[in-house]
């Protein structure tokens, strides 16, 4: 083979290599996660959820009010929320019941 033929083969191989490298680069580029506009926007901070009030917390406050002489008013609050005893009250109403109990003076 002549030297010119060998050089042409090298050039051809280099072009094939360049095409292969371009194909690999394109494949890698398409696998990268795309940046969403959502990720660029600042995330809203979650507002702290209202602390769940437990039965024991309400019971402690009501017991204290009853001990302070408000037994009839405590019974009235229970009846206001449709129960004859604290365990019958829906836990979602504990916060309102506690607020009502705090107002007893």
UniProtKB/TrEMBL annotation:
Domain of life: Bacteria
Disordered: annotated segments: 27-53
Compositional bias segments (type: Basic and acidic residues): 32-53
Protein name: rRNA biogenesis protein rrp5
Provenance organism: Tissierella pigra
Lineage: Bacteria, Bacillati, Bacillota, Tissierellia, Tissierellales
